[in-house]
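PROTOCOL LOG
Step 1. Enter all chains and additional molecules of the complex.
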Amino acid sequence: MHTRHTTCSRDCPDTCSLVVEVNDQGRAVKLRGSAEDPVTQGFLCERTSRFLDRQYAPDRFTQPMWRPHKEAPLEAVSWDFALDRIAEKMLQCRAESGASSLLHYRSGGSLGLLKQLSDLLFEKFGPVSLKRGDICSGAGEAAQEADFGVCDSHDHLDLHNSRSVILWGKNVHTSAPHLLPLLVQLKQKGTRLIGIDPVRTRQASLAHHFIQPRPGTDFALAMAVVSRLLEKGLRQDPAEFCDHWPEFVEMVNGRSDWREVAGVGLEDVEILAEALHEGPASIQLGWGMARRRHGAALVRAVDALAAVSGNLGLAGGGVSYYYRRRSAFDAIEMGGLEVAPRSFSEACLGREILQADPPVRFAWVTAGNPVSMLPDSQTVRRALSGLEMLVVVDTHPTDTTDIADLVLPTCTLLEDEDLLGAYGNHYLRSSQPALEAPGEVRHELWIWQQLARRLDLGEVLEGTPRQWKERMMVRLRESGIGLEELERGAVRNPYAEQILFAGLKFPTASGKMQLIHQVPEEAPSDAEFPLQLAAFSTPKAQCSQWSVGLSELTEARVHPETAGNLADGAEVSLETRRGRMTVRLRHDDQVHPSLVVLPKGRMLRQGGCVNQLIEARETDLGGGANYYEEPARLAALR
Ligand SMILES: Nc1nc2c(c(=O)[nH]1)N[C@H]1C(S)=C(S)[C@@H](COP(=O)(O)OP(=O)(O)OC[C@H]3O[C@@H](n4cnc5c(=O)[nH]c(N)nc54)[C@H](O)[C@@H]3O)O[C@H]1N2
Ligand SMILES: Nc1nc2c(c(=O)[nH]1)N[C@H]1C(S)=C(S)[C@@H](COP(=O)(O)OP(=O)(O)OC[C@H]3O[C@@H](n4cnc5c(=O)[nH]c(N)nc54)[C@H](O)[C@@H]3O)O[C@H]1N2
Ligand code: SF4
Ligand SMILES: [Mo]
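Step 2. Run joint prediction.
Step 3. Record the structure below.
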């Protein structure tokens, strides 16, 4: 028995250091969190603790697979056969219809930095068509870039300097578990914790005060608190460091019912106002809250609240949404969207592919399962099924591999080799193979290189994974950090600031923070579909990758009041304007009465996918997807 060290590359803010116990036959028998890593602190989340079930699942792809015609099952083929066919089709499409007839789609299956080399391959070959926007964090990032000029965070340990920490739409227990020990420690030393979520999550028992607003009304909640702060008198004059202060005040004073819109009590507003006024208060925003029609405006309202209350530019303050995880590494030179011949909105991918003129003929999908995870699954499925060739690089079967013409098997996070920056802390880490890849499984770099040779692209991708890692560490080496050090364990990004916007200087055009000063329109109400359907992260799965057992039917949680005479445990029909599915109803008085909550990630092939019920619509900024506001209703099964 021996142990190997690597890093979890899943789409998760924590980016844990893993210890893999490997037996003498080379089989992993246990995964642990590294005790030496300052963030991981010796424990893993539920979904990765159980990853070995997935690692050794019998349905793992271990050979290239080919579907001889659209209705046929996949059959195993050699790499030469698969790559020759793909190269032939790519060259044919480019010659006959131009490179815009090919689409490259990469999502967040792995956060490894080398995964961007797939973008480089397709740019050198084309440039080809790309996706535009980002369904995960697009709206929130665009909001903070508009306000502050950059979307980044104070060091997470700066929370030690906060008198209050406000967890705003951030489900720490489920989505960022390694922030929990720090929050518990802060609570013990007297830091006040406030939670804000339309679902009373487990956080309610951790927080000193928990606020349960109507979903999607965070703009109004923030303005209710601003109104109260204006009454109290501000500690700092926002006009000195913010643009649009007069318009902002006019907007706030233009309404007197902010609190009623948010559906919260006077005490809720008072406690938030007091915590922010007293300061320093750090606002920790969740990533999900902005996946709404006016998602960016919600985040901008919270940014404005932090500014007006005097919580920017000081230790213990700030609004944390995202950590610039790539900032320490050298960028791979690419033109991206600027050079792409055309782009398709990620949120509306299915519809836009179907409407494309000239048509898309070929798509390469990597590290993503767009059929299950993008809105309007059936349209995405139809669009991708209709292509002349769909190639998917993945480790396991998904709704997307189910319609692929070719599936190329690649490494799991335990076999992979890459560099990782985190989006929930400022640490940098390296992954290296803890296990040998089984069968014909290959590192993606090998796949791209083999393809590049067949496409006559010369040397652009040549080099081993380790050589590529070295190439991306030039700047880090200048500050004395080498790859060997990263391979030994987590290293803090030496270029990341402890606190942001010191001296209240912002990297915006005017050097000032930009206050939002327009109220977003309210979402139109829909009398026939009065509820809001949303699917949130579950501890049992990483997006559509389930490692803990599935219930036989998707469970829909609603407040007992909302359920009416539909019994707890009953099979009911969940309906939206997009379609319907049968779900098992669970009464849950912790859920806001206007919501129906499903677990995120279940696939069509697992008996139903929430995204088959969700309309494809973009958010106000950043090309996010409006996942959390689907008008819905429940009905008895007929
Ligand atoms: N276990 C697990 N962890 C994950 C993931 C996973 O699939 N499973 N996914 C990863 C990924 S890809 C991401 S992007 C992150 C997502 O991480 P989070 O953003 O933390 O997770 P979400 O589930 O999207 O939603 C977070 C919380 O926002 C609340 N919320 C919803 N609407 C509103 C609103 O209008 N206002 C307020 N104030 N709160 C609201 C929800 O009730 C939920 O508790 O997590 C990562 N971590
Ligand atoms: N209704 C609803 N839908 C949502 C969300 C929601 O909250 N509600 N959340 C959204 C969010 S935040 C996100 S980020 C997206 C996630 O959407 P996706 O990124 O499409 O998510 P996954 O299901 O994780 O699919 C990633 C695939 O990558 C594969 N994979 C893992 N490692 C590697 C690798 O190294 N290389 C390759 N090639 N493949 C790999 C996995 O096996 C998996 O099949 O879903 C979005 N969809
Ligand atoms: S998914 Fe997140 S919490 Fe779980 S092991 Fe990976 S990095 Fe850690
Ligand atoms: Mo995400």
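Step 4. Note key features.
The chain has 21 helices and 29 strands.
The pocket of molybdenum atom (ligand 4) is lined by residues 11, 108, 136 (CB under 6 Å).
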